[in-house]
């Protein structure tokens, strides 16, 4: 008899603090992967945002929490690929606080 194992998605684990080099490599990989996915037959984006804004710390935290929630919802509700009645989607998000006063 085999032993059942439960695998967890990375979003279910506490986020480790990556080094600056690791973070830069991850952002670069995300950009490349986003472009690859888009070029491989993506439909028009449901939403696309590129913004550099000034907001209160409370607003920023609210947005970060909403983005994390959206990611968790997608991961928790994901089903087997090509399940009848489903659509293939992509969610790529990079949200970060900018440094400096400019």
Large-scale geometry: globular
Oligomer: single chain
pLDDT below 50 for ≥5 consecutive residues: which ranges? none
State the end-to-end CA separation. Answer: 62 Å
What would your notes on this structure say?
The chain is mainly alpha-helical and 102 residues long. 40% of the residues lie in helices and 0% in strands. It contains two helices and no strands. It has helices spanning 20-39, 57-77. The longest helix has 21 residues, at 57-77. It starts with 19 loop residues before the first helix and ends in a 25-residue tail after the last helix. The mean pLDDT is 86.
Please summarize what this structure is.
It is built from two helices and no strands. With 102 residues, the chain is mostly helical.
Throw out a few tags for this protein.
single chain; 102 residues; mainly alpha; 40% helix; globular
Write the layout of secondary structure elements.
Layout: H1 20-39, H2 57-77
